[in-house]
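User: I'm writing a tutorial on reading structure tokens. Could you give me a worked example: one chain, its sequence, then its tokens, then a sentence or two explaining what the tokens reveal?
Assistant: Sure. Here is the example chain.
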Amino acid sequence: PAMVRKEIWSHVLAYNLIRKIMAQAASIHNKKPRELSFKRAIQISEAFRQIEILKNDKYYASLLKAIAQKKLNHKPGRQEPRRVKHRPKSYPLLVKPRAFYYQEFAKNA
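And here are its predicted structure tokens:
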């Protein structure tokens, strides 16, 4: 349980760090943070990870510019209903080996 808590907190920390970078990029480039793509921010951060961006402000500024470069499209009315793709079957589950069922079928036939 302790390691699970650590893993959850590390995910929360990473999420908040990405959101912080997105907020910085939005404020510098006069955009709203909700207009920026979270997935794109993660991908660009991964690409820039190999460069030591924390030691060089030029690279960090280009990271923020790359994140703020593409604006999300606003798609009103794009709510999709929750549906299950596969319908439940009316047959019982196969819980024993097929050979067992073949023998039962042969006895009853």
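What the tokens reveal: The radius of gyration is 26 Å. The CA atoms of residues 19 and 38 lie 8 Å apart.
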